[in-house]
Amino acid sequence: MHRRIIAPGALAATVLLLAIPASAAPHSPGAPGIGDPYYPDYGNGGYDVSHYDLRLKYQPATDELEGTATLVARATQDLSSFNLDFLLDVGEVRVNGVKASFRTSGEQELEITPKTPLAEGAPVTVVVRYRGVPSSKKAHGFTSWHRTPDGGVAANEPEAAAWWFPSNDHPLDKATYDVSVLVPDGTQAISNGTLQSTSSRLGWTRWNWRSDKPQATYLATLAVGKFDITTGTTEGGIPVLNAYSKDLGAHAGAARASLERTGEVADWLAGYFGPYPYNALGGYVPNTNTGYALETQTRPFYSPRQFAGGSNVSVVVHELAHQWYGDEVSLKRWKDIWINEGFARYAQWLWSEHEGEGTAQELADYVYASHPADDPFWTVKPGDPGPENQFDIAVYDRGALAVQALRNKIGDEAFFTILKGWPAKYAHGNASVADFQRYAEEVSGKPLAALFDTWLFQPSKPGVPAARAAAVAKGAKGVSQPRSWKRIAATNGVHAHGEHDRRH
Questions:
Q1: Which of 77, 157, 214, 457 is most buried by a 10 A CB count?
Q2: What is the Cα–Cα distance from 315 to 306, expressed in whole angstroms?
Q3: How many degrees, rounded to 5, is the angle at CA 160 between CA 457 and CA 223?
Q4: Angle at CA 295, nearest 5°, toward 265 and 336?
Q5: pTM for the whole structure
Q6: pLDDT tens digits, residue range 190-209?
């Protein structure tokens, strides 16, 4: 008989290990940023939100917003504390029904410490009660809240959420939404998705909106003011709701002439991109002084200035194209912005072709020929432009030129298969430029690294051999301006900068 001898120290250690429950492993704070190199403090680590329930009350006369936000989430690590991105004044926070301590830090961080640490994988419900005047709050030197004569609007990119609800403010954490807003009678509250109901009592009306497909935080929008609302359906049966400020003045007719074609444009885009991905559609034009439009999910925001020169269906095409490219498939990191803007601009080129005002090829030739080699336009790399150039005109125009170069390289059959297949492959998720290149190579059967490098990542104008190889601007001389160019360029008001126009 052989007896195994265990040293006393080893035995003690074994007993000690067995005595420590797994739950006693150390918990740690969630990261104050999600890890995006362009915006290190945007988003947060340690949890994933699946749903936002926002119950709000807004007073247009004073710009006062009062709210209770309920976040349904899941911990992705053992958490001792976690952050939300938020700017208004918080009165109380509860985590899983129990009061939690909280404090603010940095530009927009709300740090929450639950009474009981959270285990990885555990469901988490966070309730935040708050109030404040959104227009009085600034982060990074600007505000994303637009004060209007009759109310206020939340719409900006890459951030707007922090001015009206606490969130994990990065496209990587998409969620569904219920937004319920109480406003004075005679005032309307516009948001994303479908209008579930309205009810009035004691001089106040509650508007209840629902977005039942995953939505990035910057694509959530709120507009309160006095609007005329029109409703209808697309040929495909999608309900359309458009809203126009009652104070658009000379821009009113052109705005309506543009937005009322939303259903037609969405049905047309579905022929290129596949079925429209949501159960609601529309747009709104508040009385703001901003210059840009924004693809807020299911209901894009349009500035009145978009229609200063008359109707502009091209900008409607651009924002609706984003419903597939940018909204249904969202970027992984903000450097992947080309997939959003290059393809939305290319949709405008396809619309130009549809309207007989210049083909996509003619527009690509014109972009290539109209910027000489020493133009700073070519120093911006659409595939990774940097935060300072994220919304530079080159991301749009050179970005669309890269799309045409790809089309010419792989042929129409593979190209249009990719246009429709990409939103289906990554539906309601996130993807990168690298993912797109791999997918294009998979569908086309061609190596595309050199083409992507030349047209998206080199800070210089592709030379004539590369242009000829991509069938762009044969010789690059004597290229005339397509008839649609001025109308497309009119959408470039999205690049005007001002207090509200940091990024778009």
A1: 157
A2: 8
A3: 130
A4: 115
A5: 0.93
A6: 999 999 999 999 999 999 99
